[in-house]
Amino acid sequence: MSHPAQTRPVAAPPDRRRVAFATVVGTTVEWYDFFVYASAAGLVFTKLFFAGLGANSTLIAFATVGVSFLFRPLGAFLAGHFGDKYGRRGVLVFTLVLMGAATALIGVLPTFAQIGVAAPILLIVLRILQGISAGGEWGGAVLMAVEHAPANRRGLFGASPQIGVPLGLLLASGVLALVNLLAPGQAFLDWGWRIPFLLSIGLILIGHWVRRRVEESPVFKEIAERRERTKTPIVRLFRKHTPLVLVAALVFAGNSAVGYMTTGGYIQNYATKPGGLALDRGPVLWAVTASAATWLLSTWAAGAVSDRIGRRNTYLIGWGAQLVGVFALFPLVDTGSIGLLALALIILSAGTGFTYGPQAAFYTELFPASIRFSGVSISYALGAIIGGAFAPTIATALVSATGTSTSVAIYLAGMTVVGLIATLLLRDRSGIPLGPDNEAEQAASPLRF
User: Fold this and answer.
1) What is the Cα–Cα distance from 15 to 216, expressed in whole angstroms?
2) Quick one: average pLDDT of 170-194?
3) Lower CB density within 10 Å: C or N end of the chain?
4) pLDDT tens readout for residues 71-117
5) What is the pLDDT at residue 8?
6) For residues 271 and 339, is the Cβ–Cβ distance under 8 A?
7) How many CB atoms sit inside 10 A of residue 339's CB?
């Protein structure tokens, strides 16, 4: 579908580059914090915080990874409300500080052996704060990037906050792997694991400084100048666009269920678990780091490709590649070879990158300007719950019940098909004008039913 040139002026090139850099840095910091926890859940927390809970300690540790997702909608609701009423930038600064504070506090928490059941309770409270922050972060970063971009490069600019996620995983896995070298064996459990959490303090200062230097979204500036801000954006969103929110959420669910096999810490635990593959922790972390680099490159490439062939077509390529990765994953991992484990994760990451790179532009083009922050944030948060929230927990339970990883592959393939179907239910609106002048066109449903 072709669209006339936008009537509003877009940001000048230096401003766009500054915004892109700010969204990459801020999102990387946010997701570094998030993934350090997810990796530590499988490697550390089962022993230090949940060991007193018996044989189900691993299952409970992974459940705490999922608990934060249940609070993402709260963060999305709050960020969407304030972002649509008062602007995108302020919300982004607040979510960054909240995430960093929660992560740093985890780094100084006493363990179960020191304070008993209070330790896992405090850990869960801080994980909840991480979930609230993550729920508000993504939508704001996406809108800052895409609403500053020219219409024919939204996919590329929208990939900026998207690559912050694999960059966060890359940084988290790399730091954990380095700390494992500096504090091997028992030293990692005694004190080494705390270092990645405490490093968040420095990262947060950098991210805060960068984000404070960017201009507010030009779309929101125009809405504010016209005094057309919606008083109750969430009410309006659900009154008029509930089916769209649900279908958009299912698109992300298909990606996040598969992606959280590594970002949720499942593969790290599966590969290193005593009595199972029992691979060394360090090489596994380096394999995850390599997969994160692949995810980064494929995410960036997918954003650029979507500007040429459309968001929907890019997604369709991604779902096919992701399905190949799902069925190759466990046959390669179960060989017990580090090289084949790395290959499996790289293949999987190539597919998940192509079902993640176009998402920023795709979501932004689905919703009207006045309720866009609420629409993209809540769709993303719901998709994270349906897909990634408890994927590691579900995978653990499936292997326990069936005794085989094949059941996990079938589950992940099913979620991939859900994402594919949801994508087919949406029209491609690449290039649609994003400003308030075109609210009527934006409000027309992109659903194909």
Assistant:
1) 10
2) 88
3) C
4) 888 888 888 888 777 777 778 778 888 888 888 999 999 998 899 88
5) 47
6) no
7) 11
Per-residue CA distances from 74 to 13, 234, 258, 330, 378 (Å): 35, 12, 24, 35, 9
Q: How far apart are CA 444 and CA 449, in angstroms?
A: 12
**Is the pLDDT reported for residue 225 higher than 70?**
no
CB of 204 within 8 A of CB of 36?
no
Q: Tell me the pLDDT band of 371, cut-offs 50, 70 and 90.
A: very high
- Dist. CA 166–CA 145, nearest whole Å: 17
Which tokens go with 410? 């079938």
Identity of the amino acid at 216: E
Distance (Å, whole) CA 326 – CA 329: 5
CA 168 – CA 170 distance, rounded (Å): 5
Residue indicated by tokens 């991604």? 318
* Mean pLDDT within 355-363: 97
Q: What is the DSSP code (8-state) at residue 431?
A: T
Which of 65, 34, 70, 35 has the alpha carbon at shortest distance from 49? 65
Q: Which two tokens stand for residue 24?
A: 């990459």
Mean pLDDT of 353-382: 94
The pLDDT assigned to 263 comes to: 67
Instruction: Give the C-alpha separation, 397 to 385, whole Å.
Output: 17
Nearest to 63 by CA among 385, 390, 445, 348: 390
Please tell me the distance from the alpha carbon of residue 321 to that of residue 295, in angstroms, as a whole number. Answer: 13
Task: Tell me how far apart the alpha carbons of residues 235 and 373 are, in angstroms, rounded to a whole number.
Answer: 13
Q: What is the pLDDT of residues 22-55, one digit of tens each?
A: 788 778 877 787 778 877 887 788 888 887 666 6
Q: Is 376 within 8 Å of 49 (Cβ atoms)?
A: no
- Examine the pLDDT at 258 and tell me if it is beyond 90: yes
**Residue 423: strand, helix, or coil:** helix
pTM of the model: 0.83
Rounded CA-CA distance 205/264 in Å is 26
8 Å CB contact between 88 and 434 = no
